[in-house]
């Protein structure tokens, strides 16, 4: 069955079969493109990629750590919230190279042999080294296959790196808590040491006073003995009393010697306790504290660089206003918190520097107490010697009582011995005074040490395991972006494909239909009606094509019905407007008009795929009839806006194109006199 429509470049009539073919061409092309390209990440199982794990495990604390194997397992398994749907194959270097060459593998991810060693190089004493992985794409891979596998491997590397950094920082923050606990224990021990030293100081002062009294008594004894030597009359009874008193004095002196010995034992035990406290300090405590102090400037530099990078990102933001505002807010908050964070890091560094002196200070206190113990033993020995002298005095006094005739000689000897006792007691008093002063200084220094340790503990931050984990995660990855699309088939692709297939559908219409009727010269209708008669079939076909393309898009994408209704109306309008533009091109330029139309379609596609198009080409593309159609379709399916402006642009292009076609008809219906003469 034929239709009353003129076929282009042929007298054969247009059939319904031809019309159906023209109608379905954009829908079929659009369906193929949308079906092939829509949501490609849901069909990643069609990509086969190889993983080559050349990594060598590293022994850490007596246990092998195979991080390359763990990364391989993570790529194959995927994340908890997003399992991997790429067909991963664990391979070796030879098989991977052969698979890339013959097309078996789309891409190959290679984990080098030093991956674990580099990942663990942040340990103390190691030289930090960045761990890397390699990605190769097959020469015959599809256009986006390499980008998909490369992005996946890059993302896995970044996430794995953030995990390592987070674990390292968590250990650092928990180290603060451990250091605080250890310093707290040291502070408690220092307080106990200070209490013991205070008690020892009090005992030493009592010993000094007792020795002073002993020296005074011995001096008085010497004076009395001299008087006794001069008067032998009452010597016998006085000698008996002297013997009794000397025995008691010897017993008291021995008690004093026992007290000094007990004090020395206390100092010795105190020295052992201090040495035990020193042994509890970790071997690398001073080194770790110094490393922490040295790392403070680097941490401040890293915080400053991070804040500056965030500021730069906010200043150079090219995203949506909401994204830029969020980034600016994050930058302001980071800059506001930066001084306090740097001050805290600096204080921690200062405290760590002071903490390096703790092991040596504790050892010095232990040594001083040991010396006090040794001095106490020597003093006890001297006092015991004095007690022996007192025993001699008692014996002499007894002999004096028994032998009055030897009284003079004995009294003289007694006086001499008493003077020696007074001299020894005076010297012992001086030593006891120095002992009391030394123990008092130890007590004062130990109290200051305990107070300083308490201050250090109060200023050191402490974290629970959960707090350290959360803080480490934030510091390891302080900046994240939201709102971006991870889909390779973005929201602009559907409007672009719909615009392209409708444009080429309109071009196909005027490959089949006649742009200007061959009977325009003899027709009685006006030139406008003749132009509209050629436009009407293509406009109807364009409108139907628009509805068919919109229907295919809705089946594949499932947009909200309100948005789709606007999109369908724009597709219908675009089909009609594109028919008018293609009619004008063919009417004005003939077969070259179809060539120009094809160039316009290709140009519209090329300038709408990526934003890196040269500005000159982008400016030229905005002047094409495809530009308002794309703008309106994109606005209908997204928040980009511009639906009204795009629809108005399509109407303007349609009206202008019909006017051009009408002028072409007018020109063709005008015959020169020479041509009329030749025809006659």
Largest sheet: 4 strands, mixed
The whole-angstrom Rg is: 51 Å
Number of helices: 19
Binned, the helix content reads over 70%
Order of helices and strands: EEHEEEHEHEHEHHHHHHHHHHHHHHH
What is the 3D shape?
rod-shaped
Q: Terminal Cα separation, in Å?
A: 38 Å
Given helix and strand content, the structural type is: mainly alpha
Low-confidence stretches: 479-489
- Quote the average pLDDT: 74
Number of strands: 8
Write out the strand line-up for the largest beta sheet, numbering strands in chain order: 6-3-7-8
How large is the share of residues in beta strands? Answer: under 5%
Topology:
Elements: E1 2-3, E2 14-15, H1 16-37, E3 48-53, E4 58-60, E5 63-65, H2 67-77, E6 87-91, H3 93-102, E7 107-111, H4 115-119, E8 134-137, H5 145-230, H6 235-280, H7 285-315, H8 321-355, H9 358-402, H10 407-459, H11 465-476, H12 493-512, H13 527-557, H14 561-589, H15 591-606, H16 615-621, H17 626-637, H18 643-668, H19 673-679
Parallel strand pairs: 3-6, 3-7
Antiparallel strand pairs: 1-2, 4-5, 7-8
Helix pairs in contact: 1-12, 1-13, 5-6, 5-10, 5-11, 6-9, 7-8, 9-10, 12-13, 12-14, 12-15, 12-17, 13-14, 13-18, 14-15, 14-17, 14-18, 17-18
Summarize the structure.
Helix content is 74%, strand content 4%. With 680 residues, it is mostly helical.
Keywords:
680 residues; mainly alpha; 4-stranded mixed β-sheet; two-stranded antiparallel sheet; 19 helices; rod-shaped
What do you see in this structure?
The chain is mainly alpha-helical and 680 residues long. It has 19 helices and eight strands. The chain has helices at 16-37, 67-77, 93-102, 115-119, 145-230, 235-280, 285-315, 321-355, 358-402, 407-459, 465-476, 493-512, 527-557, 561-589, 591-606, 615-621, 626-637, 643-668, 673-679; strands at 2-3, 14-15, 48-53, 58-60, 63-65, 87-91, 107-111, 134-137. A four-stranded mixed beta sheet has the order 6-3-7-8, with helices on both faces. Helix 5 (145-230) packs across helix 11, helix 12 runs antiparallel to helix 15 and helix 14 runs antiparallel to helix 15 (591-606). It is rod-shaped, with a radius of gyration of 51 Å.
């Amino acid at each position: 069955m034929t239709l009353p429509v003129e076929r282009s470049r042929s007298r054969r009539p247009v059939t319904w079969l031809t019309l159906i073919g023209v109608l379905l061409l954009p829908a079929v092309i659009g369906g193929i493109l949308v079906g092939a390209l829509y949501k490609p990440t849901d069909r990643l199982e069609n990509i086969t990629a190889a993983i080559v794990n050349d990594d060598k495990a590293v022994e850490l604390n007596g246990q092998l750590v195979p991080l390359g194997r763990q990364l391989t397992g993570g790529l194959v398994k995927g994340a908890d919230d997003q399992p991997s749907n790429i067909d991963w194959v664990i391979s070796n270097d030879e098989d991977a190279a052969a698979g890339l060459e013959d097309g078996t593998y789309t891409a190959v991810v290679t984990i080098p042999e030093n991956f674990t060693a580099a990942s663990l190089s942040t340990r103390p004493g190691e030289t930090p080294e960045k761990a890397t992985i390699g990605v190769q794409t097959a020469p015959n891979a599809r256009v986006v296959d390499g980008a998909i596998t490369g992005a996946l491997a890059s993302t896995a590397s970044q996430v794995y790196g953030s995990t390592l950094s987070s674990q390292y920082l968590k250990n650092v923050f928990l180290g603060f808590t451990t250091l605080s606990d250890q310093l707290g224990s040291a502070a408690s021990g220092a307080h106990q040491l200070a209490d013991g030293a205070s008690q020892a100081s009090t005992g030493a002062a009592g010993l000094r006073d007792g020795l002073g009294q002993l020296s005074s008594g011995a001096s008085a004894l010497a004076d009395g003995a001299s008087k006794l030597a001069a008067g032998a009359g009452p010597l016998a009874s006085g000698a008996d009393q002297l013997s009794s008193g000397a025995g008691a004095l010897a017993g008291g002196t021995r008690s004093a010697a026992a007290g000094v010995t007990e004090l020395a034992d206390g100092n010795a035990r105190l020295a052992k306790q201090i040495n035990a406290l020193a042994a509890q300090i970790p071997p690398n405590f001073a080194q770790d504290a110094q490393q922490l102090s040295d790392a403070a400037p680097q941490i401040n530099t890293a915080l400053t660089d991070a804040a500056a990078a965030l500021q730069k990102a906010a200043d150079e933001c090219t995203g949506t206003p909401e994204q830029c505002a969020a980034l600016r807010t994050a930058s302001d908050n980071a800059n506001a918190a930066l001084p306090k964070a740097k001050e805290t890091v600096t204080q921690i560094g200062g405290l760590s520097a002071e903490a390096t002196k703790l092991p040596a200070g504790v050892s010095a206190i232990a040594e001083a107490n040991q010396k006090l113990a040794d001095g106490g033993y020597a003093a006890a020995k001297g006092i015991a010697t004095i007690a022996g002298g007192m025993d001699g005095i008692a014996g002499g006094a007894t002999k004096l009582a028994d032998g009055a005739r030897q009284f003079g000689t004995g009294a003289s000897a007694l006086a001499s011995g008493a003077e020696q006792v007074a001299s020894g007691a005076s010297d012992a008093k001086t030593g006891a005074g120095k002992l009391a002063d030394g123990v008092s200084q130890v007590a004062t220094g130990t109290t200051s040490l305990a107070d300083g340790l308490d201050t250090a503990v109060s200023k050191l931050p402490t974290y629970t395991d959960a707090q350290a984990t959360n803080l480490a995660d934030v510091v390891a990855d302080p900046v994240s972006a939201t709102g971006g699309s991870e889909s390779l088939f973005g929201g602009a692709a559907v409007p672009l494909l719909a615009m392209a297939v409708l444009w080429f559908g309109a071009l196909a219409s005027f490959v089949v239909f006649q742009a200007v009727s061959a009977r325009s010269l003899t027709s009685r209708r006006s030139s406008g009606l003749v132009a509209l008669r050629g436009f009407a079939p293509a406009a109807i076909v364009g409108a139907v094509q628009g509805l068919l393309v919109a229907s295919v898009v809705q089946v594949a994408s499932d947009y909200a019905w309100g948005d789709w209704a606007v999109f369908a109306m724009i597709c219908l309008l675009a089909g009609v407007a594109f028919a008018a533009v293609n009619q004008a091109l063919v009417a004005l330029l003939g077969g070259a008009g179809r060539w120009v139309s094809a160039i316009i379609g290709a140009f519209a596609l090329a300038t709408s795929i990526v934003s890196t198009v040269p500005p000159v080409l982008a400016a030229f593309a905005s002047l094409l009839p495809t530009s308002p159609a794309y703008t309106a379709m994109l606005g209908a399916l997204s928040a980009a806006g511009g639906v009204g402006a795009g629809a108005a642009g399509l109407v303007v292009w349609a009206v202008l194109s019909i006017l051009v076609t009408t002028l072409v008809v007018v020109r063709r219906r005008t015959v020169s006199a020479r041509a009329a003469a030749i025809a006659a």
